Amino acid sequence: MSAQSDASLLNHATQTIEVGSKSFAAAAKLFDPETRRGVLMLYAWCRHCDDVVDGQELGINSAAVAQTPQEARRQLELLREQTRRAYAGEPMEDRAFAAFQDVARRHAIAPRYAYDHLAGFAMDVDEVRYDTIEDTLRYCYHVAGVVGLMMASIMGAHDEVTLDRACDLGLAFQLTNIARDIVEDARVGRCYLPAAWLREAGIPRDEIALERHRPALARLAARLVDHAEPYYDSALDGIAALPLRSAWAIASARNVYREIGIVVKRRGARAWDERAGTSKATKLWLLAKGGAGALSSRWARPGPRPAQLWRRPGAEPAPSSGGRHAMHAAGA
User: Fold this and answer.
1) What residues have CB less than 8 Å from 168, skipping those under 6 apart?
2) What are the tens digits of pLDDT across the range 272-291?
3) What count of Cα atoms within 13 Å lies in the side-chain half-sphere of residue 314?
4) What is the bridge-based pairing of β-strands 56-57 and 60-61?
């Protein structure tokens, strides 16, 4: 790959994250240049796959008519085939896949992670329903937890303890996203809240977006935000294993996303009047707080991951205590 083409891919990835995720874009600037490059290129691929399946561009529906399920399935199969070709080392014309091929090769991202991520989009296409919180967490793993695993690879982590913590952060992020976007998702026919919770609250699935259910819906959103907390805590314990700048970036992203959940919970029934987020001043404060947390983690001794937390599929038995593992072996 020439320096010019590399610069083009990085520029495209940078523009993608700045439009697609302002919250994560701010934290991503804290990585060292090589790690940031990999993170941005990975994000560009994830965003591209999401948009292709949903018939959108950077999260915005650019088509006059939404894709049919048949078309979405066809697009998903094309993404799987392009992913196979990327891992086979074939030339990639699409910028997002060229970026992914580069980052997957440089950082030894396991193919199963990429295919697990695509399986999350298939769950949307197939309109999978989630009866329990464990079912919802399984979806969260595919669309976000496994992204944490791929990012961990970019930061040099391949040991089971650190991977568990990285996955936990992805789970927490997605639980927060679900709480923030409940009404928006319902308007396009999607629901990630456990059906058991909806039944307990007396909210019919096809009435989630109705104003009259907002007080009850706010209680479910708060429950979801509370459910994310132990995963945020677990992820915070995991930053001790990261190089300092990566720890700062991850701790800051954790703080920003967690704050979004706090905003949703604080707003109550008004949570969906406008999209919950954080101000620029709040982001700056949370980034500074992330820096302090990253520094203090250098002397931390993380405890064992709570046994009651949901665990990613295919994970090997983890040691009983946290600590510094592959990250430091890789030169942290």
Assistant:
1) 145, 148, 231, 232, 234, 235, 238, 305, 309
2) 999 999 999 999 999 999 99
3) 12
4) antiparallel
Full set of structural domains in the chain with CATH: 1-108 (no CATH), 129-317+327-332 (1.10.600.10)
pLDDT digits (tens, 9 = 90+) for 152-209: 999 998 889 999 999 999 999 999 999 999 999 999 999 999 999 999 999 999 999 9
Q: Is the pTM of this model over 0.70?
A: yes
How far apart CA 42 and CA 15 sit, in angstroms, is: 13
Angle CA 64–49–149, to nearest 5? 150
Q: Give residue for tokens 């709040």.
A: 282
d(CA 302, CA 321): 7
Token pair of 86 as six digits: 């990327």
Asked if residues 253 and 24 have their Cβ atoms less than 8 Å apart, the reply is yes
Residues 34 and 249: their CA atoms lie apart, in Å, by: 13
CB atoms within 10 A of CB 1: 10
Instruction: Say which amino acid occupies 240.
Output: A
> Quick one: which of 39, 27, 46 has its CA closest to 247?
27
The alpha helices in the chain, defined as continuous H runs, are 3-20, 22-28, 33-54, 69-87, 95-107, 111-125, 133-140, 146-154, 160-180, 182-187, 195-201, 214-238, 244-267, 280-296, 326-329
